[in-house]
Amino acid sequence: xxxxxxxxxxHDGVVEGVFFDNKEDILTLFVRIDCEVRYELVFKGVLEYxxxxxxxxxxxxxxINYQKDNFCHDEIxxxxxxVSSSSDSSTYWSNDELRKIVEKIKLNDLALLYMEPSVGAxxxxxxxxxxxxxLS
Length: 136
Fold this sequence. Notes:
Elements: H1 3-7, E1 14-21, E2 26-33, E3 37-44, E4 48-52, E5 59-66, H2 73-83, H3 95-106, E6 111-119, E7 122-127, E8 129-134
């Protein structure tokens, strides 16, 4: 299944786990849909990510995958500033660096995924590729 097809059915899914491999720059999300079906979303070429408020319940309200075909400059710019900051500091990217990243998203060299929660984890991932695997 492609990421875009999974995003069509992911509403009310549950993020059960997050794993990041620092050496390979790979982030894996473990997501359950409809109590039975589990997916592994493997994001490759991860430049940055942020997971906020991950807890026992992490229910997905909506997911937006910003790419060439789904592009909103202002939203992307704000999410990039958020993903590259921490709770006590602002982004470490300059405006010029942010504009270059936005251009790469516009050209489909990168993508930016935003998971908005109903409850629990809010997630943003800046990546180059994603593979979706059905686990059960």
